[in-house]
Amino acid sequence: MSHLEIERHAEVVTLALRRGKVNAIDEELIRELRAALDELVVDRQARALILTGRGPFFSFGLDVPAIYALPEEACSRFLADFTALYTRLYTYPKPIIAAVNGHAAGGGCMLALAGDRRIMAAGRARIGLNEIAFGASVFAGSVEMLAACVGQRRAETLLMSGALHDAAAALDAGLVDRLVEPEALPEACLEEARGLAARQPNAYAGLKRLLRGPVAERMRRREEDSIRDFVQIWYSAETREALREIEIRD
């Protein structure tokens, strides 16, 4: 795979995003992640997954320049694929640890929210849903995952601020479950994943389905309308002007 690095550590499999400097999410990365998830879900030796990034970024979100250039219909299809990906992660029957090794903004934060646990490297990395800062919206699924993680009122505050939070603030807000020093992150995530992998797989999957099923149902029911709203805002004159000022050096 060109944008996804897969490493096995006995019963734990690490999926590491490695697309350019910021691990921006494009169609190919989505396809590779979905293919890996499909393969690992039937792999009995793979009992838990770790999702992380390579370099100083977990993922800085969707590939804005690429999406900016898409026609509206193609953009809608891409967003449907992306939201289906994070819904798959959120409902995946096996444990997933999000190892937030670096900045996780927008779509990158959404992928992290889909994990069962989020462990973040202390230091300069920031995380958040910052779409409103450049005049864009988010998706129903991301709102549901955020509210399930931090509570409805705090989710409103985080979304409306559009801020990216450092590790300490992210822990305080409930965006992440634990902070570790950057050099300790791989081992800490492996330890956490091995602990969850030791649970009886069917029981774990059943409990996860009970806990997350109602949230996932709301995500699916509202997602199509939210994508339509997102696209309408994305192609508005005000947002296009703001997006022209954004430059991601990949």
Automatic annotation (TrEMBL):
One biological process term in Gene Ontology? fatty acid beta-oxidation
The record's section on Pfam families has: ECH_1
GO molecular-function annotation terms? catalytic activity
Q: Which domain of life is it from?
A: Bacteria
Q: Which CDD domains match?
A: crotonase-like (cd06558)
**InterPro entries given in the database record:** ClpP/crotonase-like_dom_sf, Enoyl-CoA_hydra/iso
What name has this protein been given in UniProt?
A: Enoyl-CoA hydratase/isomerase family protein
- Organism of origin is Eiseniibacteriota bacterium
